Amino acid sequence: MCGRYTLADPAADLAERFSFDLGDLELSARYNIAPTQPVLTVGPERSARLLRWGLATDDPKRSPINLRCEPYGSRLPRLQRCLIPADGFYEWKQLAGRKMPYRFTLRDGSPFAFAGLANGVSCAILTTTPNELVATVHDRMPVILLPDLESLWLDPEARDLARAFAPYPSEAMAAYAVSPRVNSPRNDDAACIAPIA
């Protein structure tokens, strides 16, 4: 699963990369985005909104932040598809009796889009089987869309989505250990993404 992620690129750069109008939207660098917080989403028509991370459901005790892509195939829930921009995400690995956080990014450091589902007020990230790199730390990874599949994902008429769910190529990604300070969502600064030995 994906329980924390980062998005620190300048707002104007994100608007250009994901082809949305920034308008009155105020975005700041985020180094430890956590569930229940407002997150940037880009929907059909390239409309950008801040939605709550954690899909609101009829059951107040259940607000999933991640949804497995496998049950859906071409029959996705009746939710709107969206892009959830990011420039990295965290996963935790059990090492010597404690969990060590790792940050995963694209090798070139550029921003990318998770495949997301939204209901107008909240959203969730789809997950898939891990690539070889992520599998060293976790048994799931977020669905990271190849740039040429982002428009397909946003097309409400598109039904053949299996290729969008393929794990992102591991050779195009990088990973490194970071400080356990990311364990607390109160910590949200550049020190969260600093590599440690």
Give a short synopsis of this structure.
The chain has a domain at about 5-90 and about 110-130 and about 140-170: hypothetical protein yedk fold (Alpha-Beta Complex).
- Structure classification: mainly beta
The rough form would be described as globular
CATH class category label of the domain at 4-88 and 111-130 and 139-169? Alpha Beta
Helix content: under 10%
- Distance from N terminus to C terminus (CA atoms, Å) equals 25 Å
Mean pLDDT: 92
Let me know the largest β-sheet. 8 strands, mixed
Percentage of residues in strands:
35-45%
- What's the CATH H-level superfamily name of the domain at 4-88 and 111-130 and 139-169? SOS response associated peptidase-like
Q: Give me the count of strands.
A: 13
Task: Write down the Rg.
Answer: 16 Å
> From N to C, what is the helix and strand string?
EHEEEEEEEEEEEHE
Low-confidence regions: none
Please report the number of helical segments: 2
CATH architectural group of the domain at 4-88 and 111-130 and 139-169: Alpha-Beta Complex
Question: What secondary-structure arrangement, pairings included, does this model have?
Answer:
Layout: E1 4-7, H1 11-17, E2 30-33, E3 38-42, E4 48-53, E5 66-68, E6 80-86, E7 88-95, E8 98-106, E9 112-118, E10 122-128, E11 141-142, E12 144-145, H2 150-154, E13 173-177
Describe the 3D structure.
By secondary structure, the protein is mainly β. It contains two helices and 13 strands; from the N terminus they run βαβββββββββββαβ. The strands form two sheets. Strands 3, 4, 5, 6, 9, 10, 11 and 12 form an eight-stranded mixed sheet that branches.
